[in-house]
């Protein structure tokens, strides 16, 4: 539904967390920017603003200050991430403000990241690097990627980009979405897909249905050769259950870009596991990604100003963007 523009100049609160978006001043025209790095600053600048940009998408500041802050003027909230779980809380969703995300910026980079993790596991890259550091010459055999089975949970743009790249190297890919559609399995079919899965890729939004979806019970359905790749959200996984399965060899490995607690605590056993590849929530962050995020927000701001329909509107009932295919 189109969002009618307010009286210019538009006031935009920006939760930036200490790092302001590059080129934002020039991208927003005559909009008045009100910058906030902390929850206290956000509570100060938010009243009277029609638009909120959550550039610091790792912050819970919006939820923290919402009930005690006058948000009556707020009509649109945009987050500089694909996931919306930090801002999709009931009070905001029920406020009448439109919520949008940055869908489309991260699809291909995250798909390349997943493909890289799959190849790294199959070709034993971590062991090769360790042996190189030791100056040890040890011949080994590695695995084929072609012909293996990948189950990708999340059939939105990121999941579909992952499926496309994995399919291009000869993997057999099954997409899993909220409901069944052409080429997509319903979420409740997942248990039947796990027993022959070589690579389980989690690229789903975090919702009540997907939270904790990988736990001891679902891990038990995977074959011992299986690897898990999580580029979705950390709470999709019960981390202790996965850590235990990795420690005992119940599954062969995991590539984890997201975690229940971020940064990952220094005492987590995941840091030292030889069958685990860790990265600090960076699977979609390629050169130029911040500029692309600003450009997307600026385009949506122009739409908001003109009363046109916004891109990437989050369905308040489902908790993700529901247009353009399943999630």
TrEMBL record:
D-isomer specific 2-hydroxyacid dehydrogenase catalytic domain segment(s): 32-314
Highest taxon, organism lineage: Bacteria
Residue ranges annotated for the D-isomer specific 2-hydroxyacid dehydrogenase NAD-binding domain, each copy included: 116-283
Pfam families in the cross-refs: 2-Hacid_dh (PF00389), 2-Hacid_dh_C (PF02826)
Coiled-coil stretches: none
UniProt KW keywords: NAD, Oxidoreductase
Gene3D superfamilies xrefs: NAD(P)-binding Rossmann-like Domain (3.40.50.720)
Family: Belongs to the D-isomer specific 2-hydroxyacid dehydrogenase family.
Protein name: D-2-hydroxyacid dehydrogenase
Source organism of this protein record: Pseudonocardia spirodelae
